[in-house]
């Protein structure tokens, strides 16, 4: 029962739509009704930028930070309290699942990139550094957020086998693949637009 409560908290905290809340509170804008209709930082930037470019950047950065930390903080607290690594990994998966399928938004949500990066950074810091570098390079060159995120995702998976071929404690890459699958699934519309060369750039 204690573990179930922990898992539920990880899911519900991960499900908090910070991008939507920040845009509503500070920009008086419902990003669910504009742009890509996503609750992530990219759509916050795209929608709010139309009325206030400076505020848009601030809110986008805040969204990334909060989306990452809503996954990180519960895991770190559980780690300090001495919970098993298997429980921590399950919390990580549930945090990403919560962000992507939020009960507060009728089980809709964001793409899971920031939350996924946050939770994985707890376990795989070197892999996340590699992924962020690839994300920055692709984003700088092509200026397409989804392409950068997908490139970073594949980099993380590949580097996880380089740095942690035998995953410590859990001895499996399954949680990474589950998180990757969730993120990839949420990017299907973006992938289809990329194939059709219709994906919007973030300028």
Automatic annotation (TrEMBL):
The chain crosses the membrane at residues 6-27, 59-81, 87-105, 117-138, 144-163, 170-188. One of its GO terms (biological process) is phospholipid biosynthetic process. Pathway: Lipid metabolism; phospholipid metabolism. It is an enzyme of class 2 (transferase). GO terms for cellular component: plasma membrane. Keywords: Acyltransferase, Cell membrane, Lipid biosynthesis, Lipid metabolism, Membrane, Phospholipid biosynthesis, Phospholipid metabolism, Transferase, Transmembrane, Transmembrane helix. Its EC number is 2.3.1.275. It is found in: Cell membrane. It is a multi-pass membrane protein. GO terms for molecular function: acyl-phosphate glycerol-3-phosphate acyltransferase activity. It catalyses: an acyl phosphate + sn-glycerol 3-phosphate = a 1-acyl-sn-glycero-3-phosphate + phosphate. The keyword Transcription does not apply. Pfam families: G3P_acyltransf. Catalyzes the transfer of an acyl group from acyl-phosphate (acyl-PO(4)) to glycerol-3-phosphate (G3P) to form lysophosphatidic acid (LPA). This enzyme utilizes acyl-phosphate as fatty acyl donor, but not acyl-CoA or acyl-ACP. Probably interacts with PlsX. Belongs to the PlsY family. This is Glycerol-3-phosphate acyltransferase. It comes from Campylobacter ornithocola.
């Amino acid at each position: 029962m204690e573990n179930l409560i922990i898992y539920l908290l990880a899911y519900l905290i991960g499900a908090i739509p910070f991008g939507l809340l920040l845009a509503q509170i500070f920009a008086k804008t419902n990003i669910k009704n504009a742009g890509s209709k996503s609750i992530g930082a990219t759509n916050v930037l795209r929608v709010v930028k139309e009325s206030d470019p400076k505020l848009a950047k601030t809110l986008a950065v805040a969204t990334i930070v909060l989306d990452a930390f809503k996954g990180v903080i519960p895991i770190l607290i559980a780690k300090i309290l001495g919970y098993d690594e298997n429980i921590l990994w399950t919390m990580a998966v549930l945090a990403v699942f919560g962000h992507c399928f939020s009960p507060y938004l009728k089980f809709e949500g964001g793409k899971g990139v920031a939350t996924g990066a946050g939770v994985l950074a707890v376990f795989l810091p070197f892999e996340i550094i590699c992924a962020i570098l690839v994300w920055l390079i692709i984003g700088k060159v092509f200026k397409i957020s989804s392409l950068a995120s997908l490139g970073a995702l594949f980099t993380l998976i590949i580097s996880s086998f380089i740095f942690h071929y035998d995953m410590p404690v859990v001895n499996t890459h399954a949680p990474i693949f589950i998180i990757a699958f969730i993120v990839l699934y949420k990017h299907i519309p973006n992938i289809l637009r990329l194939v059709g060369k219709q994906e919007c750039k973030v300028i």
